[in-house]
Design a protein that fits this description.
The chain has 570 residues and is mainly alpha-helical. 67% of the residues lie in helices and 0% in strands. Its main location: Golgi. This is Conserved oligomeric Golgi complex subunit 1.
Length: 570
Amino acid sequence: MALSFQVEESNRKRSADDVIQSLKLYSRTLLDVQALVPGRLSLALAGLKNNPLLADPSLKRLEGLRLDVYERWCGEEIQYFIPYIRHDDLDGSHAREMLSAWSEKGSEVLLDGLKKTLDTMSEFKMIMELRTNVLELWIRDGAKARGIDPSELQDALRDAINARMLAVLDNKVSKLRLVGSEVSAALGRWKDGITDEHVSIWDEEGYDAALAGGAAPFVQEVVSRLYGRNDAVSKAAHCYKSWYHVIDDVKDVVEQLRKQRWDNDYDEIEDEETIESRQKLLSKDDPQMLQEKLDTTLDRSFKELEDQIQKLWDERAGSARNGKLAMYFLRVLRDIRHQLPQRPSIKTFGLAIVPSLHEKVSAAVSSPALDEFSTHGVSQRVVAGRPLWEGEPALPNQPSPELFQFLRSLSLAMSEEGVDLWTKAATSVLKKHLSQRLCEMWDGALAEISSQKDTPKEEPTKDDGDDDDDDDDEEEKEKEATEEKEKDSKDQTPGLTPEQKTDLFTQWLFDVALLKRCIGSIGETSDALQNLEDKMYEHSKLDDEAARQRLTKSANEFWQRTHLLFGLLA
């Protein structure tokens, strides 16, 4: 038996055949010894004393001895030699003790060789085949041996095989950490404009090469662009998909274990209880243990991966490129969550980090448009569209050019970063961020304008051609007043006339009403913009509530006509 597992001298690898051959020798030895000792062996030894050895017909039939030729050359002592072998000292109990001791040592050698062979196996399919062959062989032959409980070795074989299957499962499932290692490596070699490159779905470059490979590569290229799977994201996603096959393999193994039948079809010598007990152990308990180990290992591995990703993000959340990094994390998490195992504890994988990522993405995407609007929008004190106002009282029917440009720039920026980023949750975070920043800008502008003194409306100069001296005096006074105003203007911002303020606040009231339709679709955002709208209404000095309702209606109608221009914001 031990020779079956000696591979060093023959320079060969361990294989399942070594285990099968060793088990066959073990079971065959048990059966042969029980069949021969002491009965048949004693009779055979006694039979040797009946006739001379060379007269035995079986020896004469051996061609190698050639007794038909060489027998006459043998002396009488040899020709008539009768062996004397004691045969009456073979005690049955002693033989059973010797066989029992040998079976224990033999089973140890067998199990040791089995474990060493299993250590070379890392695929569930190979382990399953070995398990089936070993157990079927022992169920067939082990039940024939008398005085030996076959369930003991059966359990030992089960334990050894199950231990290896659990170790392989733990090793394969734990490799989920390689996904985190890939993410960490991508962050380590990050290059702005290269690692975070996003190719538009409408960019023709690259499609020709994809089409050259057929329809499948072309569709894959379109899908990759649509979901923002650049090289860095694709590597992490492929790493996860390669790992996910482990779960499918384990499911197949569990299903095969449950379907296997372990009846002894060779000899009808087992009772129903023995068969049912073995069936429960091998086809119910073992797959259940494997499934429980899979579930436990999955829970642990996903928790470790989530902590690893969270740590990587926390280390970089404050960097200057946190917006691009957040987009990368979001896309990796999305691809992982797209194919999660069916486990209650894994359903929330990665969700804790998503709000923080959405905030950074929203801030990064909206920052240029907000800065531009703060510089050229809120600071603008001239109502360019005043001549186009309609109705009585005259009210605006379109937003200020600066607000329209702000919304357009923002929607383009969102599209450039990828439509896949703007889920309902991400858009809500963006709108909340926009509402907060815009309210802060307008609150500051309202406070600034309110603190300024009204500039009186200039009266037309009365023309009196009869008194030239009075005209000269007035011109001198006007010159002095102008110089005084210019001097004062160096120290303070010029004010607005009451009419200019009213027009400005009325235009802003329309802008805020339009923003309510655009970004005020969630509770907190709607409340903030509503408060801002109320402030604008108070400063606009509109005559009645009907005018406000007419202005709000105009804003709603304008949004209905133009909302498709603003893409993802709509």
